UniProtKB/TrEMBL annotation:
<dbReference type="GO" id="GO:0005886">
    <property type="term" value="C:plasma membrane"/>
</dbReference>
<feature type="transmembrane region" description="Helical">
    <location>
        <begin position="66"/>
        <end position="85"/>
    </location>
</feature>
<feature type="transmembrane region" description="Helical">
    <location>
        <begin position="26"/>
        <end position="46"/>
    </location>
</feature>
<keyword id="KW-0472">Membrane</keyword>
<dbReference type="InterPro" id="IPR050469">
    <property type="entry name" value="Diguanylate_Cyclase"/>
</dbReference>
<dbReference type="Pfam" id="PF00990">
    <property type="entry name" value="GGDEF"/>
</dbReference>
<protein>
    <recommendedName>
        <fullName>diguanylate cyclase</fullName>
        <ecNumber>2.7.7.65</ecNumber>
    </recommendedName>
</protein>
<keyword id="KW-0812">Transmembrane</keyword>
<keyword id="KW-1133">Transmembrane helix</keyword>
<dbReference type="InterPro" id="IPR043128">
    <property type="entry name" value="Rev_trsase/Diguanyl_cyclase"/>
</dbReference>
<dbReference type="GO" id="GO:1902201">
    <property type="term" value="P:negative regulation of bacterial-type flagellum-dependent cell motility"/>
</dbReference>
<dbReference type="InterPro" id="IPR000160">
    <property type="entry name" value="GGDEF_dom"/>
</dbReference>
<feature type="transmembrane region" description="Helical">
    <location>
        <begin position="116"/>
        <end position="137"/>
    </location>
</feature>
<feature type="domain" description="GGDEF">
    <location>
        <begin position="249"/>
        <end position="382"/>
    </location>
</feature>
<dbReference type="InterPro" id="IPR029787">
    <property type="entry name" value="Nucleotide_cyclase"/>
</dbReference>
<feature type="transmembrane region" description="Helical">
    <location>
        <begin position="92"/>
        <end position="110"/>
    </location>
</feature>
<feature type="transmembrane region" description="Helical">
    <location>
        <begin position="185"/>
        <end position="209"/>
    </location>
</feature>
Length: 394
């Protein structure tokens, strides 16, 4: 695998959240849990310093819960430290993941009970967290915790309907006895808890969508690149020709084949043959114009697509490539060098010609170049073959 392919694959595996290990995802969950507790702390501190709204809350419970929130943050930080220092251990990635996710779910359930099982904040947060969980973690972990959460919520709903336990105990009975939607404090509290979850969910899914789109573009790029030479492959080359055909743009195709390439493989090994192909690819890339397409067409064959160019200019580019290849021997580790040459075939197209015809002209010109002694550029216009000489004007 080439450096380009390795770089792309390493980026994909290291940056996409879905590719993270379970424990890395769990650390993210723990951080979110800490942020949730911080939201609670800010809300409760605001209530404590605002006597006008004490009538709407259970103040003693809020003060106790404030201490619980602080202790919970300390415990969550400890869990993060445990996860960080043991993230390479298999049992941490598996069993500890269940523990962390279950802990997070229980925190959500407790918070949901305090603000009200049927409250918009609880329902919205439950749906959002479930959706994110299904994206991040395996179905086993999510469905296991979903069963736990559903069971506990069902019990809490039953107990509240039977008046065995109070509904939304963090609010006062005075607030709950009235129409909640008419109470500004309750409405603003719901908005306060929903908006952070909404933004966090949108940010998370936007990040995943961005990484998914970027990953798809990288995979598409990989599908267009020859892994050895890092040139475009045959599939991409044909797509570009079809684009030119749709635009009714004429183009010139140059096919080149390395002379006696089998001898290099047989005498020096396939590793040396690969090195030769890589060197030729670099030579072609720096010799042609920036607008030209260079691709590996198969084996030791390369193909060039030149548009908006005259036949004489194309022949000069082919000759320059041929000469550069011949003048730059492949140097081996033992200071030995291999002289490499290539034969070129040039085929013209017109707006009414077919893809097969242009390729056939270039292929026939290449075959004629090999039959005529190799290491030369031949042009075929459909009727005659012409060997290119630098001083010849077409």
């Amino acid at each position: 695998m080439t450096n380009l392919s390795k770089t792309i694959l390493n980026y994909i595996q290291s940056t996409i959240i879905m590719r993270w290990t379970n424990i890395q995802k769990c650390i993210l969950v723990l951080v979110l849990a800490i942020l949730m507790h911080l939201l609670w702390i800010v809300w409760k501190l605001y209530i404590i310093i605002t006597p006008d709204i004490w009538q709407w809350v259970n103040l003693p419970l809020i003060k106790k819960q404030l201490q619980v929130n602080i202790i919970s943050i300390i415990c969550l930080i400890i869990l993060i430290c445990i996860s960080i220092f043991n993230f390479k251990k298999d049992w941490v990635n598996y069993y500890f993941s269940y523990f962390i996710i279950t802990t997070f779910i229980l925190i959500l359930i407790l918070d949901g009970y305090f603000v009200g099982i049927y409250s918009p904040a609880t329902i919205f947060t439950s749906v959002c967290v479930t959706g994110i969980g299904l994206v991040l973690f395996s179905k086993k972990i999510i469905y296991f915790n979903l069963i736990i959460a559903t069971s506990i919520f069902s019990v809490l709903i039953y107990l509240t309907t039977q008046n065995t336990i109070s509904y939304a105990p963090i609010f006062s009975s005075k607030l709950l006895s009235n129409t909640l939607y008419h109470n500004y404090f309750w409405v603003y509290s719901m908005i306060y808890f929903i908006i952070p979850v909404l933004f966090a969910g949108l940010l998370f899914f936007e990040l995943l969508l961005y990484q998914w789109r970027y990953r798809e573009s990288l995979f598409e790029k990989i599908s267009q690149i020859d892994p050895l030479t890092e040139l475009y492959n045959r599939r991409f080359f044909n797509e570009k020709i079809n684009e030119l055909k749709e635009q009714q743009t004429s183009y010139i195709i140059i096919i080149l084949d390395l002379d006696h390439f089998k001898t290099i493989n047989d005498s020096y090994g396939h590793h040396t043959g690969d090195a030769a192909l890589i060197q030729i690819a670099k030579t072609l890339s720096r010799t042609v114009r920036k607008t030209d397409i260079v691709a590996r067409y198969g084996g030791e064959e390369f193909i060039l697509l030149l548009s908006h160019i005259t036949i004489h200019q194309a022949l000069e580019i082919a000759e320059k490539c041929r000469k550069t290849i011949a003048d730059e021997p492949l140097k081996l580790n033992n200071e030995q060098s291999i002289h490499i040459t290539a034969s070129f075939g040039v085929g013209m197209s017109t707006t009414d010609s077919t893809l097969d015809q242009a390729l056939r002209f270039a292929d026939q010109a290449l075959y004629h170049a090999k039959q005529s002694g190799r290491n030369q550029v031949q042009l075929f216009d459909g009727t005659t073959f012409q060997k290119f000489h630098p001083k010849t004007i077409y």
